[in-house]
Amino acid sequence: MPSDDPFDSSILPPARQGSVVALGNFDGVHLGHGAVLRTALTQAQQKGGGVQALTFEPHPRFLFQKDEAPFLLTPPDMKARLLKEVGADEVVVLPFTPAFAALSAEDFVKHVLLETYAPAHVVVGFDFVFGAARTGNCALLRDLLASHGIGLSEVPPWKDTRGQVVSSTRVREALRRGDPLLARQLLGRPFAIEGKVLHGDKRGQEIGFPTANIDMGPFIRPLFGVYAAKVRHAGDEEAKPAVVNIGVRPTVDGSRELMEAHILDFDQDIYGQNWSIELWAFMRPEKKFPDLEALKVQIAKDAAEAHRFSGL
Questions:
Q1: Residue 70: closest CA among 176, 214, 219
Q2: Rounded Cα distance, 62 and 115, in Å
Q3: Which of 42, 66, 115, 122 has CA 20 to 30 A from 258's CA?
């Protein structure tokens, strides 16, 4: 039911009106999300307008499950870039505050969609829900929009080759059990963690395997262990093979979560630069070695094995 409490629409970011709106959280921007954006693009071509992706930040789970472990597949900047790559002309980030979360489904449509963005058409995924306590669904959204002469396209589930529905949850589950191959198939691209290369304690350099250290921040933690990976400097097309450790480095630290990438056949100072680490294959679990020499021997084996994946 609509609320009598006034909603301060000034918190909403300004954007053009009259676009075809693709509405959703879009964490991961996986193949199912791509289907939503393609449907919006088709509608926009028919109506002669642009595609506007409306998404939410922070992710609603940050508000309702504050103690949850990091789970994001795509932080805001990365998500916006990927949405544009799959068809959005404009990405509008709606602030998911407690006041916003308290909007009824009817008030969300009235204040956010109709009054602020005035869409020519709306596109959502089959499982889209909205409004306080997630009381709004596709059927209600269709009725509310229809009363204003606005159509709704509900995109059916996108299924993988095994007939299972592609979802952000399945991507997270694949990563948490160390299956970057399945994650890649669901995303339509390798899962990547992006961040600034930080100074570390130089242990890798001391044993002949210098590493680029990246704080994983809000990104989901894939299964701790060693991965064959490809890395690239932000904005570069060329990817370089690497062996990556994700975890707490039990041999030398054992407490702080970190991603360390040893870039194969590479010797440049990249501290302070933004790099992307793409996970391609899980090679082994993280392990505590008796000393640094034993660790050095194993890293050499890991690097040799990672070379096998460099042609992927």
A1: 219
A2: 27
A3: 66
Tell me the chain's radius of gyration from C-alpha atoms.
22
- CA nearest neighbour of 254 among 283, 287, 281: 287
| CATH class of this structure's domain 177-308 | mainly beta
Q: Residue 165: CB partners within 8 Å, gap ≥ 6?
A: 32, 157, 158, 159
The model's pTM is 0.91
pLDDT digits (tens, 9 = 90+) for 189-225: 999 999 999 887 666 666 778 888 998 988 999 999 9
> Which residue intervals of the chain bear CATH 3.40.50.620?
9-155
Would the pLDDT of 1 be above 60? no
pLDDT band, very low/low/confident/very high, at 8 (cuts 50, 70, 90) = confident
- Residue 145 corresponds to which tokens in the numbers above? 């929009």
Separation of CA 243 from chain center: 22
SS3 206: helix
Q: Which two tokens stand for residue 22?
A: 């693709």
Which CATH number does 9-155 carry?
3.40.50.620
Nearest CA among 230, 256, 234 for reference residue 243: 230
**What's the CA gap between 121 and 113, in Å, rounded?**
10
Q: What order do you get walking across the sheet with 51-57 strand by strand?
A: 90-95, 51-57, 20-23, 121-125, 151-155
Distance CA 205, CA 229 (A): 19
- Is the separation of the CB atoms in 226 and 283 below 8 Å? yes
Distance CA 296, CA 301 (A): 9
CA angle 295, 246, 71 (to 5 degrees): 165
User: How far apart, in Å, do the first and last CA atoms of the chain sit?
Assistant: 53
Token reading at 128: 């889209």
Which residue intervals of the chain bear CATH 2.40.30.30?
177-308
**Given this model, what pLDDT does residue 257 score?**
87
